[in-house]
Design brief:
3 helices; alpha+beta; five-stranded antiparallel sheet; catalytic activity
Length: about 140
Amino acid sequence: MPDIPLDPRLVADSYPLTELPLCQLRLMDDSRYLWLILIPRRAGVSEVFELSPEDQHQLWREAAIIGKAIKAHRDGDKLNIASLGNMVPQLHIHVIVRHQGDAAWPGPVWGQGQAEPYDKEYLAEVRERVLAIVSGIRFSD
């Protein structure tokens, strides 16, 4: 699958982790949450309905499988999966593990406090853990 240009804000606010069958998987630069972003590698797409039915299915599959795995890994109380795109029109899906008592609980994470960027050591640790989780997952039928 060809690489597509990423919105500059996605590049600035997140770190690349790996490529899934449909999406690039990235880690949001906010250490308060385990917050992943799925970006379908399809040019010019800003809404889920603009994807083919097959790609819509695969996008949801990737979000659900990743979400289930990271929620279990972090013993989360809730998993938030959302597509907003008000600030960044390129289609991307947020997958966020939530805990009662986290910095934004019970509200959404957007606009709550200041992001706490990863330091290099913790970033390396989280990347390694997420990649270990993802490496054992099968994303296609």
